[in-house]
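User: Teach me something about this protein's shape.
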Amino acid sequence: MKAAVVFEKGSIPRYADFPEPEKTHENEVWVSVKAASIKNLDKARANGSHYSTENEEHKPKVIGSDGVGYLENGTKVYFFSKNGTVAEKALANPQMMVTIPESLDFSIAAALPNAVMGSAMGLKFKAGIYPGAIVLINGATGITGRVAVQIARLYGARKVIVTGRNEESLQALLKLGADEAISLQTDDENFKEKIQYIHNETPIDIVLDYIWGHSVEVILSALKGDGTFSHKTKLISVGGMSGDTIQLSSQILRGTDIQISGSGLGSWTREESKLLFSEVIPEMFQAAAEGKIKIETKDVDIRDVESVWNTEIPNGKRLVIRI
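Assistant: First, the predicted structure itself:
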């Protein structure tokens, strides 16, 4: 079969012939792959820099961790696979598979699930979002943040505040459902005052954070209580683009009703992971089919994978390899 293959550790994937994967479990099914999105995870695993590949002996392998295509009976599906997905054929476990609405384009179906994992899972299971909630999304100008704004609205958020550095992207978020945008380019005092003003007017229930680092320190200082009863706020860490650590004053935790947790593969329960496939992704696929969630893609034919691998993708778009 034809596939995008990394032959040497650290090299760029090449379009080449590669053996079809062999079944390791009886319940695995064949998928005729039509598209697969390329994410930071896929690039890190491909070049051997991801922690999951540190102790792995490198062998030529097909890139990609998920994809979309047709089962042998013609059913249109999204699936996970540990054996690579940017290929003409892949093997998948039916328990890690979701049926795609017929009207939903393959590129959208390929691009959306990763953003859903980075937004809906944190909002639904870690933050416990409810109709009427006030949500602040910190570092919202990336692909996942853009989807998070729309999902927060789907889940009934009364108000969505977004932060980011790119002014053009911030304005685009207002068109996607955000109510207020705050630039991270402003100085700390001004940024803190804006958060405090919003929190005093409409107390923030959920902070969904994609960048961590200094901006989170300022947000926490803005939410800090004064020793009287304070509003309950849940801060959910999803990413760390601005740094992996922060300085956290114990006074903030003692003087504020704030709960800090993370949302990622290692933090979800087995039940939540099952619900990702049985409820969350299907719900978001249907919302996308109905035009309630929008995500942009940069589509490239698999034959051109080598030439686009290190190319900068336009802001707010996900690279999708079509097969």
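Now, about its shape. Residues 270-289 form the longest helix (20 residues). Residues 27 and 93 are 7 Å apart (CA to CA). If you'd like, I can walk through any region in more detail.
User: That's plenty for now, thanks!
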